[in-house]
Amino acid sequence: xxxxxxxxxxxxxxxxxHLAQIRRSARSAAADQAEALFWLHPDPRGLQSLIRTSRLWxxxxxxxxxxxxRIGLGDQDLALDLQLGETKxxxxxxxxxxxxxxxxxxTHGTVRALPVAVSLRSFALLRLEGNPIAARRMTAAMVLxxxxxxxxxxxxxxxCARGSGLATWDWLKWAPHLADPSVPPTDLPRFAVxxxxxxxxxxxxxxxxxxxxxxxxxxxxxxAWTNDRSHLLVIIDGGxxxxxxxxxxxxxxxxxx
Length: 257
What we know:
The chain is of the alpha/beta class. The chain contains 6 helices and 5 strands.
């Protein structure tokens, strides 16, 4: 009857206004979420502009984003919890309102093309496979972020490479993170570079001394956390394992990726 039609129409208009308010909140939250993530993880191609700013080496070991680097863009869930109220019984659901709700969730429940990051503290080994050129470019982007966000006293870089891999990473000699910090500034730098992990283990003997295997930590503790030791990022590009050593242990060492 006419009364029932008018009542349904009024309820529908109220519900659609309610969804419009939620839609505005979702759009605002998505914009804030994107701004925050792009601030934390900007495009690696723009890192050079940060060198002369206060953001250089800004991340400390106590920060939650320490040793975290961007690996690309991807879709992520909206950070805002959409409060949609209690669902009605199926016989009381208005079809048009239900369709509008589904469209809202499908459109605004996910934020497109946001930075996706990985914590180097959480993994003993990251393997990049596929096209060698693409893998090296992605690795270079990750390393550039690491040396931009972290001081060389808190994150060190080591290189295990030979042949074309060694030539590819020649630019890394300009990063203070590759040099031994114990060498006086008046002497020639001693870089943590070797053709196999056994030799690199010897070069980093002081840095690796006292680090336990990740499998030897107590339950409930962070396996990558070490008191006042720097995090060590080892790049392997064409280098060999050699005779083994602590760096070749499949369990990994604390504070070493």
